[in-house]
Design a protein that fits this description.
One of its GO terms (biological process) is intracellular protein transport. This protein is mostly beta strands and about 80 residues long. It has no helices and four strands. A hairpin with a 4-residue loop joins strand 1 and strand 2.
């Protein structure tokens, strides 16, 4: 794994089906509230020379035969 900067590894992941959408709902903006109250985040976000620890929210919208829409959003964790 030394000098393997191009690849990343998932050390932990948590998945959940939030809601099943009907196709016509994609014509408008839709906001779905959520929170990370039960997710353990024991480490702060870190960006170093040889390693980067980040937390990513991944949203997958499955469109059946049309494929899927996948979006990623990084967020920062700062422990008090």
């Amino acid at each position: 794994m030394y000098f393997n900067r191009g690849n990343f590894y998932d050390f932990a992941s948590l998945g959940s089906t939030m809601i099943n959408y009907v196709n016509w709902m994609f014509l408008e903006k839709y906001t779905y509230p959520f929170e990370f109250s039960t997710v353990e985040m024991p480490y702060e976000t870190y960006n170093g020379v040889n390693v980067r620890l980040r937390y990513v929210l991944k949203v997958t919208v499955t469109l059946g035969y049309a494929g899927s829409i996948i979006e990623y959003q990084d967020f920062v964790v700062i422990l008090k």
